[in-house]
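Render this sequence as a predicted structure.
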Amino acid sequence: MKLLENSQSESASIGIFGGSGFYSLLDNVREVTVETPYGPTSDKIALAERNGKKVAFLPRHGKNHTIPPHKINYRANMWAMKALGVKFIISPSAAGSLQKNIEPGHFVVVDQFVDRTTGRVDTFYDGPAVTHMSFANPYSDYLRTVASDSIKKTGVVCHDSGTVVVIQGPRFSSKAESKWFSEQGWEVVNMTQYPEVVLAKELEMAFVNISLITDYDSGVDGVKKPDSVEDILSVFGQNIENIKKSILFMIDLIDVEKDCDAHNALSFSRF
């Protein structure tokens, strides 16, 4: 796969899926458009700096949140990050809790996913090079440790592992579906983690998800459900402020020279 050559000024080591609220705290922010063979990205990519580290930000739903989860051009978004030289992807996302002990306002650094989506293009490799990528451990252990340590610095309750169930969207789960997910012992439900994590590893980028819990999903019994949409938005607002702080800590902690397993994933995938 041939990637576009970028000048040194159009490069980054760390990529983050998040909007303007994230990069407004950083230095030397400017927006660039990265053309891809898979069509346009969700929006322009903002390049910024923090303590000498170059960071790329892309709002996965578009800057004005106009792209629903099943219509996101995941391949274009991930390809653009790789084209900029990104080695580490931080992917925060709003999520619902499937377990009583994971409360609204908590963060979960997931280590597994279950794919319940349909029809999403989820690979860069349609041939002729046959590529069978291992996804037994889809998320970067290194980035998960960095994320957990950073979140705990903010005082937010952090669950160091968990399984995210990825549903197609844009609808939410039925109560029966949600109860099934909960009874399987899975922790959170979300609409965007698949195929983001798969595509990142195919391009040899280390990847971490931080699930920001907004509410309990419909099938979780014996918990207090939000009284109104305003309650959910209040938790969402608190989550955004806390994830901003966590990501700043993460940027400081990430060793951009570190070599992770994901950075050599193709070496073990070609036949």
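Summary. The mean pLDDT is 91. The radius of gyration is 18 Å.
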